[in-house]
User: Fold GDSL lipase/esterase from Dillenia turbinata.
Amino acid sequence: MKTPMIALFLIAFQQILLGSEAYTKVPALYIFGDSQADCGNENLIDDNEDKSMYDPYGKNFPYGPTGRYSDGDLITDQIGYYLDVQASTPFVHDEVKFKANKRDGYNFAFASAGILDETGSTIIELFKNSISEYLNRTFHNSSTALSENLSESLFVVLVGSNDYVFNYLDPLQNSTKHYTPKRLARVLASRLANFLEELYTLGGRKFFMFEVGPLGCYPLVIDMVRPESVCAKDINEMVQYFNTQLGDAVAQLNYRFQDATFYLIQIYDFLFKLVQHPVKYGLREIRVPCCPTTTTKNSMGLCAAHGVPCSSSKLHMFWDKYHLGSHINKLIAEKACKDSGFCRRPADFDFLSATSLLRPRYIEGTKRISKPFRRGLNFYCM
Assistant:
C-alpha cells in the first residue's frame, strides 16, 4: 500500500493521579495512522487504486462504505465514542468545513501511510498547515485558546505495519533490505519518536501510541511467507523488536517532556492471545477472513468488490486479510480506555552509566477496573 507516509499518532490523554482514578474530558481527537485508522482520506485521493469505497466494506457501519477498511467501526471511532468526542472526519474530504469552527479534531490517517519515506509521504506538514491556516481562524487567532485546545486534546497514532508488510517483507522493495530486523526496529522507532516530538512541538500533550500487532498471524502475511505453524514466528519476532524499541522511545519522551503524557497501547499481546485462545473470545476463525478477498496480483488482501461476506463476522478475527473485524476493534478501544494492563506509560529510568541507553522500567498497573465505564478517560495506572 503505497502513497502518503503517516508518521503518526493516535494521541489519547489520561492524567494519572497516584493511587486514584482519573476521569478526563478531551475537547478533540486528532488521529494519525494507516488503514487501521483511515476513515476515508485514502479513498479521496484520485490516483489511489486500493480503495475500500464499496460493498461489503461498511456492512455493519450505519452509513455503509465510507472508505474505512472494516465492516464497521475503526479502533479510533470507538475511542471517540468512549471519550464522548464526535468521530473525527477525514481531513482531505472536509478541508472547507475545517475553516468554520471545527474544534473537535480531525483524522489525518491514510491507508498507505508508514513511518519510512519509502512507504508514503509525510502527513506532518498537513497538520502543521491545518494549524496555521485553519485552526488559528477557528480560535479567532487566539494563540492561548488554540494552545489550550491542542494541549487538552488526544492524539492517537497507529502506524508501522505497512513498513513491514509492504516494504521490508516485499521482495520488490529494496530500500530497507540492508537493515537487519533489529536495526530496522531501531530506525523505525527513532523516526516515529521524532514525529511524536514534532506533534509535541506543535502543541500536543496527550498521546496514545499503538504497538504493531502480531503481523506473522495476519492472513495476508501468512499467504506471503507460508509458515508451517499457525503464525510466522520470525515475522512476529521482528515486530516484537520494534515494539520493544518503541517502548524505550516512548519512555524517553515521557522523561524529556514532563508536561506531556505518552501512553503505549500494548495490542500485540492481546491480539496474540486471540490467536492462541480463539474460543475464549468467541472466535471460530483466526486465519480465514469474513469477506471473500481478491486474488489478483497486488490485491493487498482486500475484500472483493460486492462479494458476499460470512453470515456472522463476529466469529472471524479478520474482516479481510489485513484488517481486524469491527468487533475486535471495539475490544481494543475498550481496553485502551479502561484497562491499566493494556495502557502503559513507560517511564522511570535506571542510569547504568553515563553513556548507557535509557532503559524504561515499565510501570505495572493495578488490578483491572470492574466498575461500569463512564464517559471520559478512565485510567487506574500507577
Remarks:
- The mean pLDDT is 80.
- The chain is about 30% helix and 10% strand.
